[in-house]
Amino acid sequence: MLSEYQETLLQSVKAFQSTQLVKNKYENVLQHLDSGIMLFDNEGVLTFINVQMARLLEMPRQSLIGCNLLQMLRHPHLSQFKKRNVLRIYRETIFHRKKYHELIDEYGRHWLITVTYGDQMDGDFLLSVKDVTDFKRVEQAAYQNDKMAMLGKISAAIAHEIRNPLTAIRGFIQLLRPHLVHLGKDEYARIILAEIDRANDIIHEFLNSSKPSAPQKSKVSVASLLKEVVLLTESEALLKNCQMVLEVPEDGYVSIDVKQIKQVLLNIIKNAMDAISEVEGDHKGVINIKAEVDAKHINISIQDNGNGMDKGQLGRLFDPFFTTKEKGTGLGLSVSYRIIKNHRGNISVDSLKGAGTIFVITLPIVS
């Protein structure tokens, strides 16, 4: 009888140990997931948090285990930004029954938050957080390419239809100009011709933004390219109270269409000057142009201390016809985007309202 009891007890111990090993194994897996995980019980107490989630919250795990939501929000190490987002997720989950949330953190990264609850969780709440920044970047690039492709389809169809009547109007205005001069109205003719030329320029930019010509590449020193660009812009920069600072290594070559890449660089520098001129007061503008070479690429950064942009403007910056300038066409950066892509490169931008903007152009290097 005792032997049977001991055998049963031994089996129970082995079963418990086996269960504990499985539990430890799965807990170890959860601890090292690239997604952050938190588990609240049916009373709202945090019973589990993995390493990644604690890292995202920038707090030690042990200080959070056993806390309820209110205690978490009162935790002295939780930043105000994170407190606001925790509250927002709580409201949308409880009051609006939302199970999926998206947010951008203070570092500009995108996060997808999933809340699982209901019968399958026995009253518990499982919250998982995944970094989807790279997915968003790919999605944005695909969206941008779709827009440019659509722009290409409609541009060819409308360009000639607009240019033909503009050419006819310009010709007749030139024929009428002597009569307008006789009437003392030559200024009218000058304005009409200038506006027609401006319309033609917009059409030209529109066509280039949809499909810039194939790059005619040649091997060029990045140092000489950037020095020439600075030489072309420094006089205008001085007039606008801007200082140009160039930092570039003497080595580093790229295979590019010099005219097209120069167009991109000049466009970005001109935008930087305009952003600096928008800052009120006696503001000393600085435009830093820097090139860095790694094993496969060269990164050219153009940074200004101008007015900067908010997140809404930043997200639409490469959209055709989007502009923050009163007299801008909104085509310069969309043209630049397509030119860099045609060179198998990448162009990115980061900005903070009131603190300036930085553009980074990445191009493959050649030996």
Which terms would index this structure?
367 residues, Beta-Lactamase, Heat Shock Protein 90, 3 domains, 10 helices, HisK_dim/P_dom
Brief account:
The chain has ten helices and twelve strands.
SSE string: HEEHHHEEEHHEHEEHEEHHEE
CATH class of the largest domain: Alpha Beta
Described by the principal axes of the CA atoms, the overall outline is: elongated
Average pLDDT number:
80
Question: Kindly, what is the distance between the CA atoms of the first and last residues, rounded to a whole number of angstroms?
Answer: 85 Å
CATH superfamily membership of the largest domain: Histidine kinase-like ATPase, C-terminal domain
**Percent of residues in beta strands:** 15-25%
CATH topology of the largest domain: Heat Shock Protein 90
How are the elements arranged and paired?
Blueprint: H1 2-31, E1 36-40, E2 46-49, H2 51-57, H3 69-73, H4 80-94, E3 100-104, E4 110-116, E5 125-131, H5 133-182, H6 186-210, E6 218-221, H7 222-239, E7 242-247, E8 253-256, H8 258-277, E9 285-293, E10 297-304, H9 311-315, H10 332-342, E11 346-352, E12 356-366
Parallel strand pairs: 7-9
Antiparallel strand pairs: 1-2, 1-5, 3-4, 4-5, 6-8, 8-12, 9-10, 10-12, 11-12
Characterization of the model:
With 367 residues, the protein is of the alpha+beta class. It has three domains: 32-131, 2-Layer Sandwich (Beta-Lactamase); 136-210; 218-366, Histidine kinase-like ATPase, C-terminal domain (Heat Shock Protein 90), CATH 3.30.565.10. It has ten helices and twelve strands. Strands 6, 7, 8, 9, 10, 11 and 12 form a seven-stranded mixed beta sheet that branches. Strands 2-1-5-4-3 form a five-stranded antiparallel beta sheet, sandwiched between helices. Helix 8 (258-277) packs antiparallel against helix 10. The radius of gyration is 30 Å and the shape is elongated.
